[in-house]
Design brief:
143 residues; alpha+beta; four-stranded mixed sheet
Length: 143
């Protein structure tokens, strides 16, 4: 699979937002952001991960996952790198009109009290800005 340049990723992200409303806007945005991050920071790629809390599950699966530690409200993606006095960067993806659920607000408060940075991401530019501003100096880039 050929690697995409930043310009190609940005063009793809912009093209996808001009189409008819997709059913999974947050998911599409998240996938584009993760792809960009992995291209820009391959040495950090393993430390950016999704927390698969959402999705339809039957009662049995949901019970197993809850017993395994799945917690309502956890951010969509976590960048497990300390920087600027924070332990990690936690990011919740929302559409322009999307709002946090109460469990997400409570998790945000707990994460921030524990020394993590939390951001709501509504666009590719939000994501890129948050990551670039968050990462410590050895990883600062003009991308």
């Amino acid at each position: 699979m050929a690697k995409m340049t930043f310009e190609e990723l940005l063009a793809k992200a912009n093209a996808e937002t001009t189409r008819a409303k997709p059913r999974h806007e947050e998911s599409q945005l998240q996938r584009i952001c993760v792809k960009w991050f992995r291209l820009q920071y391959p040495e950090l790629a393993i430390l950016l991960f999704a927390v698969p809390n959402g999705g339809a599950r039957n009662k049995r699966e949901a019970g197993i996952m809850k017993a395994e530690g799945v917690t309502a409200g956890v951010a969509d993606i976590i960048l497990l790198i300390p920087s600027g006095g924070y332990a990690s960067l936690c990011m919740e993806f929302k559409t322009e009109k999307g709002r946090q659920q109460e469990t997400q607000k409570l998790w945000q408060q707990a994460a921030e009290r524990a020394g993590n940075k939390y951001a709501i991401i509504r666009s590719f530019d939000d994501f890129r800005t948050e990551v670039k501003n968050y990462l410590p100096p050895p990883y600062k880039r003009n991308t």
